[in-house]
Amino acid sequence: MEKKTWKTNLFIVLMLAPSLIMTLGVIVYPLINTFIRSFTAKDGSFTIEHYKFIFTDDIAVGNIIYTLWIVVVTVIGSIFISYLLALYLRFTDSKISKFIGTLYILPRFMPTLVAVYAMITVIRDSGLLNRISVLFGGDFKPGLMYNAKGIILMNLWFNIPFATMIIVASLSAIPDSIIESARDVGAKKLNVFFKIILPLSIKDVMIAMTFIFMSNISSFTTPYVMGGNNPIMLGVYLRKQFSEYSNYELAAALSVVMFVLSSIPALIYIYTNLKEQEWEKTH
Amino acid sequence: MTLGLFNPRRWYYILGRKKITELIILCVFIVFFYGPLIHLFILAFADKYEYPWVLPREFGIRWWEYVFKQKSLVSSMSLSFTFAFLSTAISMVICLPAAFILSRYNFKGRKLIMLSFLIGNAFPKIGLYTSIGIIYYKLGLMGTFVGVLIIHMIESMMIMIWLPTSAFRSVPRQMEEAARDVGAGPVRTFFSITLPLAWPGIAVAAVFAFIASLGENQGTLLVGLPTYKTMPVEMYGVILDYPATAGAVFALILMIPHLLLLLLLRRYIGPETLSKGFKMN
Question: Distance from A235 to chain B by nearest Cα, in Å?
Answer without folding.
Answer: 6
